[in-house]
Design the sequence.
């Protein structure tokens, strides 16, 4: 299937760090459709060959296993092209229209790898130049807006130009193989479904931890913060996939409808519950892997005295029959002890233990990164001597080992191929996105007037002590403390 993929911001970090390496991996795996063209667009004047040389040089920065050989890149580069683009200049959209018009009838994907503040002007210009017909889809990168009002403003303008099925809001966490395995675990197996409810599950934890700091992006991050950067999108999307009812089918509309129901069922925050159930923190100097690292306020481009949060932990509940009374804990942060993304399902204790030492609860750990797999924690007999005491054991499924003979597909690779193929299941619908903003809005409003500010935590730790106290109120503990 021939296609045209246009990268607005074709020389930016997202394009050469994530998108083009993902497209190359699809090319290497033989899944990138034949007859495809990839057009990079940016403000610089470059020829096609100069753009190809620019991308080849930056491919040296990707991990070694994903770097192309000279021959591989030469073959891939035949698909790469470049045009100058000033997003505010109408004539440049005519150039784009003419380039796409060279192959009438070929589906086109326009990936807006630019600041979301530019989405309105780009979409309006695309519509004004007829670049919104049925054969065109537009991909919108996060963050979509800064709050509910700005998100609705962007979506209103996008909907004037594109239909809902043409506007693909991307969340790269939804493309991770482990997240695909999460849906397979829930809806492809009968084993867990009878247990996937309040009668059997005591609590759910979602952790998205990073050991890195903000690097040289202090100015961008300071205007965003951990709540907007990770909770409003990635963490809530994972929560919906854990908690949603079985959809009627694997079609995009059926899945999105069920995810939206979860978001609408989240217990709303007010000033009292924000103060009680939300912890925000900001890292101070510490050590990561034995190396001293600076605190957030000492990072490049971070304004003095900033109250931007680099850590969030919160407790919430889903107000429906399946999950009533079950606490869901969401946690994310920078400069934490390890880079770790996982979902922990803590099952309830047996109602009447008959074995000594059987107090340990069962739990299912869904590992998202850096490993990709499942751990099931059980109690088992040692099988030695006459003791009836039980001991914890762990069943560990590593997907990389289990599927070692197959080519694992990365998140952006999967999502780009879905965008090209018109498969919408893994993209976020506008009403989902707006409902997520609606839910976090009371937290943002409370923080604007809260004189306390974020609580400090040492880099290399697991965040402020109050995050542990948050779950301890329910006689729970974070996974690393269990």
Sequence:
């Amino acid at each position: 299937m021939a296609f045209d993929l246009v990268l607005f911001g074709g020389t930016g970090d997202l394009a050469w760090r994530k998108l083009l390496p993902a497209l190359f991996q699809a090319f290497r795996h033989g899944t990138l459709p034949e007859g495809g063209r990839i057009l990079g667009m940016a403000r610089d004047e470059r020829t096609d060959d100069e753009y190809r040389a620019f991308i080849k040089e930056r491919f040296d920065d990707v991990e070694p296993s994903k770097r192309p050989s000279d021959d591989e890149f030469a073959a891939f580069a035949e698909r790469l092209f470049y045009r100058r683009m000033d997003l505010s200049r109408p004539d440049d959209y005519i150039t784009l229209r003419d380039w796409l018009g060279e192959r009438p009838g070929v589906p086109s994907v326009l990936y807006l790898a630019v600041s979301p503040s530019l989405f309105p002007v780009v979409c309006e210009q695309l519509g004004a130049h007829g670049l919104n017909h049925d054969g065109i889809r537009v991909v919108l990168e996060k963050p979509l807006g800064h709050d509910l009002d700005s998100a609705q403003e962007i979506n209103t303008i996008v909907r004037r130009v594109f239909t809902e099925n043409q506007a693909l809001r991307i969340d790269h966490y939804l493309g991770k193989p482990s997240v695909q395995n999460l849906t397979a675990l829930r809806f492809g197996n009968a084993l867990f479904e009878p247990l996937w409810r309040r009668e059997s599950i005591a609590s759910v934890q979602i952790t998205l931890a990073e050991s890195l700091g903000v690097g040289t992006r202090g100015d961008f991050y300071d205007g965003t913060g951990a709540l907007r950067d990770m909770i409003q999108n990635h963490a809530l999307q994972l929560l919906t996939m854990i908690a949603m009812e079985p959809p009627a089918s694997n079609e995009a509309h059926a899945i999105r409808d069920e995810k939206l129901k979860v978001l609408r069922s989240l217990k709303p925050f007010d000033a009292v519950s924000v103060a009680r159930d939300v912890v925000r923190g900001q890292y101070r100097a510490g050590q990561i892997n034995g190396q001293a690292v600076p605190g957030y306020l000492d990072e490049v481009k971070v304004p003095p005295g900033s109250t931007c949060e680099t850590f969030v932990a919160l407790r919430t509940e889903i107000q429906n029959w399946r999950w009533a009374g079950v606490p869901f804990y969401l946690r994310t942060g920078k400069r934490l002890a390890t880079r770790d993304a996982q979902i922990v399902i803590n099952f309830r204790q047996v109602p009447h233990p008959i074995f000594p030492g059987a107090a340990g609860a069962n739990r299912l750990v869904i590992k998202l990164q850096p490993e990709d797999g499942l751990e099931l924690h059980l109690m088992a007999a040692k099988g030695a001597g006459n003791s009836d005491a039980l001991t914890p054991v762990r069943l560990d499924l590593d997907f990389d080992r289990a599927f070692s003979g197959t080519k694992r597909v990365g998140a952006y690779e999967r999502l780009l191929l879905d965008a090209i193929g018109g498969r919408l299941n893994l993209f976020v619908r506008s009403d989902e996105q707006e409902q997520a903003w609606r839910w976090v809005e009371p937290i943002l409003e409370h923080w604007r007037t809260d004189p306390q500010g974020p609580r400090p935590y040492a880099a290399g730790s697991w965040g402020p002590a109050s995050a542990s106290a948050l779950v301890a109120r329910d006689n729970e503990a974070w996974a690393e403390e269990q």
In short: The radius of gyration is 24 Å. Residues 430-449 form the longest helix (20 residues). Residues 174-410+429-481 form a domain with the Dihydrodipicolinate Reductase; domain 2 fold (CATH 3.30.360.10). DSSP finds 15 helices and 17 strands in the chain.
